[in-house]
């Protein structure tokens, strides 16, 4: 008898989060260390040839990537839970492998410390990303003003100190835009430069202050961080330090939105309430109260939700990194809201996914016009970027029925065990394997 081979169906699977909506939350959530602070500070460890010991590091895919990038350029790392010991005594000129750098824009932050410490470096351009083109011209112009020769060849930024000089030279630098990354690059490079560097129109984010505190703990001379003029007096050498990372204000704001949308009383610890000022102000406009119970603890007290307008701006304005989560909340807040994104040109992709869940949102340019609906309905949705994925989880918590959030690689970049933390508060969600329909 003739045997005919039947093709075996190969079933590919993907990990998704399944949320059963409308459970109420209660209790306290522990906020992890700030991803964006940790990434810049990890790059900053290159400035020092002695050991640096960091603590309160979040367990995130982005942090793992940064560890791999540092290891690829010769840095020795020992990680134990939230602690990381970094020995950058034998760091090389690079370049770090492009396949790693292309996955993490923050990897470009190594350029300032490498150049300042070694006098030359090669760093691949980080490439585009889902939320916009994100150029690095302000980083490059800052380094050039400090005496670096910078040219881009085959997608790699080659930077060296002009005239075979040993140190960068302090300079007066005005940033056309208060870029967080450019401020960090210039600040780190200036710590070991000769003379004084002044950064005007500097970014004022708490992560800049954390980076400056870290550099100061190694002996750097920096003042004015947290204001729009930062002054750095270069020193010859930095020394070993022990440094704890600040709590993540974006993770904290995400949980505040989760409490508000489920009408639940939840506490957050540890936080720096000042870092949450714009989020707290907007929550109060929307309805919920935020009580500051202790210098490092806040509590969300639920109230009816009403619409408001939000425009993203550099700190202390409302953060672009909280925009998507607040949009999920406004989607079920009574009345009309307008959310305007001014920081990144392509950061409203979550609108289409929220619409699939029944949100009434119209997009016009960089503004989303929202008419609150009484409830959302669960649906399969796809994460488009990191904060958008958190917004979809928040929407799923409030929606009727089941929401399946796909594209978890985004979520895992920036939220440490989000489902474990939400489950502990009483949310009904699980991470499951699901067949991919090809
Ligand atoms: C950081 C944060 C990111 C946050 C953003 C704004 C990290 C790892 N990431 O990103 O989560 O959303 O700040 O708060 O800390 N720009 C230029 N030229 C440059 C640099 C930036 O035109 O050389 C533009 C960008 O395209 C963007 C704007 O400036 O439109 C803000 O970017 P920037 O503040 O630099 O953000 P990042 O440091 O990339």
TrEMBL record:
Sequence positions that bind UDP-N-acetyl-alpha-D-glucosamine: 105, 134-138, 321, 343
EC number: 2.5.1.7
PTM annotation (2-(S-cysteinyl)pyruvic acid O-phosphothioketal): residues: 129
Span of domain Enolpyruvate transferase: 20-422
MF terms (GO), sorted A to Z: UDP-N-acetylglucosamine 1-carboxyvinyltransferase activity
Residues annotated as the enzyme's active site: 129
Keywords for this protein: Cell cycle, Cell division, Cell shape, Cell wall biogenesis/degradation, Cytoplasm, Peptidoglycan synthesis, Pyruvate, Transferase
Catalytic activity as recorded in UniProt: phosphoenolpyruvate + UDP-N-acetyl-alpha-D-glucosamine = UDP-N-acetyl-3-O-(1-carboxyvinyl)-alpha-D-glucosamine + phosphate
Pathway: Cell wall biogenesis; peptidoglycan biosynthesis
Class of enzymatic activity (EC top level): transferase
Compartments in which it is found: Cytoplasm
InterPro entries for this protein: Enolpyruvate_Tfrase_dom, Enolpyruvate_Tfrase_sf, MurA_subfamily, RNA3'P_cycl/enolpyr_Trfase_a/b, UDP_GlcNAc_COvinyl_MurA
Primary location class: cytoplasm
Classification via CDD domains: UdpNAET (cd01555)
Residues reported to bind phosphoenolpyruvate: 35-36
Function: Cell wall formation. Adds enolpyruvyl to UDP-N-acetylglucosamine.
Family assignment from sequence similarity: Belongs to the EPSP synthase family. MurA subfamily.
Stated name of the protein: UDP-N-acetylglucosamine 1-carboxyvinyltransferase
Origin species: Synechocystis salina LEGE 00031
